[in-house]
Design a protein that fits this description.
The structure is a single chain. The chain is an alpha/beta fold. The protein has 2 domains: 233 residues, NAD(P)-binding Rossmann-like Domain (Rossmann fold, 3-Layer(aba) Sandwich), CATH 3.40.50; 96 residues, Rhodanese-like domain (Oxidized Rhodanese, domain 1, 3-Layer(aba) Sandwich). The chain contains 16 helices and 12 strands. The chain has an 8-stranded mixed sheet, with helices on both faces. The chain has a 4-stranded parallel sheet with strand order 9-12-11-10. The longest helix is centred in the middle third of the chain and has 18 residues.
Length: 380
């Protein structure tokens, strides 16, 4: 894997590093990386790997660019809104370094295609934001003996590690044997994330990839790096391989990929109407006609209510519901509203457990209200 004169000029600051040099840069050029996700983490990972001269970069993403992505997903610009993230990513990467071979996988990674997607690459980097895909990526990498460079972000905190049992370290399941219950950990769409945080964590992941490619330095295999942006502090936890791990332990029971949605307790969307849900059109009828006797309650938090709210809909935050539910009438019919329908579903379940008989959650929340009823209500 030789470098031409243009590449020697481009990578000169690498070439004069004793721990990289010409031999190391050739290894970088000869390496192939599969980046799962072209979002918050995938953006800095892909951009810095491209700038560093990685030879082949695969991008797996089936989503399109949304305005809410632009605060952190720096692969994409205003002009890319509505475009395929994979296509937008390729354009940006090739603008940074046309020498990089970019392979697009404009698809969702699943149990059916994961092994086929991952097999041709040397290193896998996890830039996803959901538990089924993390467990899927982990298991596929363990089965194929590929290093899995892991990162995750939430609000002001991030994590990074390298899971590689074939290199003597643990896997993701050794750290998290079981996923949290569905809805227990909010997504970035529900909980928020500081825009620069994925840049920091993604750069750490890109650093680990380059070290793996050149075979130098001490990697994060066997270590979990924790970062708190508010306190500007890093902490480190030692990780050990679990001998009872079902996929990388001494007596593995997982020998092929499984149904990860089912493993994480995620129930498929019902094909018929859910009797405990209503649409924003139903909610509008309730608000327009007080004779129906239905009250709508917003269970989001006060700072969200300040961003966007619907006139005439009072606030009772989810965080206060367990202490304040006695303020509500158990014989009254209520429609509960949140941002996208997840918290209102939990709130409705809780109230039903307390003896409330007529409680329904508004499907897709205030975002659906903004899209379908009143565009003057900001969508965030």
């Amino acid at each position: 894997m030789e470098l031409n004169n243009d590449e020697i000029r481009r990578y000169s600051r690498h070439l004069i590093l004793p721990d990289v040099g010409l031999a190391g840069q050739k290894k970088i050029k000869g390496a192939s990386v599969l980046c799962i996700g072209a979002g918050g983490l995938g953006s800095p990972i892909a951009m810095y790997l491209a700038a560093a001269g990685i030879g082949k970069l695969g991008i797996v993403d089936f989503d399109t660019v949304d305005y809410s992505n632009l605060q952190r997903q720096i692969l994409h610009t205003d002009a890319d809104v509505g475009r395929s993230k994979a296509e937008s990513a390729k354009e940006t990467i090739q603008g940074i370094n046309p020498n990089v071979e970019v392979v697009l996988h404009n698809t969702r990674i699943t149990s059916e295609n994961a092994l086929e997607l991952i097999r041709p690459y040397d290193i896998v980097v996890d830039g996803t934001d959901n538990f089924p895909t993390r467990y899927l990526t982990n298991d596929a990498c363990v089965l194929l003996k590929k290093p899995n460079v892991y990162g995750s972000i939430f609000r002001f905190e991030g994590q990074a590690s390298v899971f590689a049992p074939h290199l003597g370290g643990p896997c993701y399941r050794c750290l998290y044997p079981e996923p949290p219950p569905p809805g227990m950990v909010p997504s970035c769409a529900e909980g928020g994330v500081l825009g620069v945080l994925p840049g920091i964590v993604g750069c750490i992941q890109a650093t680990e990839i380059l070290k793996l490619a050149i075979g130098r330095g001490s990697s994060l295999v066997g270590r979990l790096l924790l970062f708190n942006a508010l306190d500007m502090k890093f902490r480190e936890l030692k990780l050990r391989r679990d001998p009872e791990c079902p996929i990388c332990g001494e007596h593995p029971t997982i020998r092929e990929l499984i149904d990860y949605e089912q493993f994480c307790g995620i129930v498929p969307e019902p094909t018929t109407a859910n009797p405990n849900e209503v649409t924003v059109q139903d909610m509008k009828k309730a608000l327009d006609d007080p004779r129906l006797g239905i009250k709508v309650i917003d269970v989001r938090e006060p700072f969200e209510f300040e961003i966007a709210h619907i006139d005439g809909v009072p606030l009772l935050p989810m965080s206060q519901l367990r202490q304040r539910f006695t303020e509500l009438d158990p014989n009254q019919q209520y429609y509960l509203l949140c941002k996208v329908g997840a918290r209102s579903h939990q709130a409705a379940e809780f109230l039903r457990e307390q003896g409330f008989k007529y409680v329904k959650n508004v499907r897709d929340g205030i975002n659906a209200w903004s899209e379908e009823i009143d565009s003057n209500v900001p969508r965030y």
